[in-house]
Here is the input.
Amino acid sequence: MELRRAIPPGEPASPETFYTGLRLADLAPAERPYTVSNFVSSADGKATAGGRTAALGDEGDRAVFHLLRTQADAVLAGTGTLRVERYGPLVRSAAMMKIRAGEGRPEQPLAVIISRSGQVPFEIPLFADPGSRVAIYAPSATTVPACAAEVTVHEFGPGGDLSDALRSLRRDHGVRSLLFEGGPVMFNAMLAAGLVDELFLTLAPTLVGGAELGITAGPALVDAVPLRLAWALELDGQLFLRYGR
Here is the structure.
């Protein structure tokens, strides 16, 4: 599999050429992780088809999805995304673990869950994996059932500040690079708080229609967030875009 370089122009190359060795941790600000987000979207701006992302991605998007997980100290997803996508161990293949280890990271990234309600989907496979580490930010009354994963809980109530959670990740867990994978409501909140540094976006050559959500949902941002295009790659009609703020 080779991605064709559209912007900047150049020779085609494997996904590993573009999506490894990113050194995201080197870009971390003083008090929080450097935060990148990864989404797939249809050509008409929908982030899901039939409520799932799988129908929009193909082999190239799946390769990018797994490779980006090798580049971050931690992976954050909202509770709705965790539940719908049935999250399990974040890195499953030996090849991806080898990339992480080769770049000086543990084989598994820290899984991060932020829930103001405390409604954490403890039934997903992630919590049944003894090799997974999970940091939960939730109200103090949240009870963690017996599970195989290593779980740390930090108090985060209904009025919790996302900035405080990210500062805790840096301070308490040593997280310098964070990958955010959805959903759209939390992404909107993170953009509003100025906590997103980059966006990796796969644009699928598909029209979905209907009332499916886009990659953001919620109140309009007070100020639009300008983006800088770092690259545009193409494979079988899919565009792989990287934006910086």
Notes: The chain has a mean pLDDT of 95. The first strand starts at residue 4 and ends at 7. The chain is about 20% helix and 25% strand.
